[in-house]
Known about the structure:
Layout: H1 6-9, H2 21-37, E1 46-50, H3 56-63, E2 68-72, H4 76-83, E3 96-104, H5 112-121, E4 122-132, H6 143-147, H7 157-166, E5 171-174, E6 186-192, H8 194-199
Parallel strand pairs: 1-2, 1-3, 3-4
Antiparallel strand pairs: 4-6, 5-6
Amino acid sequence: xxxxxxxxxxxxxxxxxxxxxxxxxxxxxxxxxxxxxxxxxxxxxxxxxxxxxxxxxxxxxxxxxxxxxxxxxxxxxxxxxxxxxxxxxxxxxxxxxxxxxxxxxxxxxxxxxxxxxxxxxxxxxxxxxxxxxxxxxxxxxxxxxxxxxxxxxxxxxxxxxxxxxxxxxxxxxxxxxxxxxxxxxxxxxxxxxxxxxxxxxxxxxxxx
Length: 208
């Protein structure tokens, strides 16, 4: 979509985004260490970075040895940048199954029906989310989140928890990493479906 052009990624809450590659590489490592510690992934696991922008997290996961990494973004400009690096960027929503789905700063750009459609097409037992939130359903907690007019889905944390529960993520763990962390204004969480949770109880070991 034209509104998510290069200028968008250089302004508002994305100001300086294109210079933050190192920070996203660190985030990819933190996600890797978390999921390995919880025995939820191995190097053959399939990752989807939904709302991948130019693909920084995918690059980080690839550098860590993951080869089944995919991305999707509605920004034609960002998708083109990611593809130019040789990353696997899907062109459209199509039925696929992944082990882990990463959704950072993306769900607030979507209506509930669009979210339901995306999760109906891209299925995953594990999800990692970062979502700006409201307390009163009138405005976001953070001023910078209010300034972005593409933020169209205003919810409290409780509202988002209910939505994710309805999508099957009945276990939600707040995240406190160096690069992303749960605060009153931002929900950062690891979501597990029951199958993923119980798989951790009988895991024979992780291929690192």
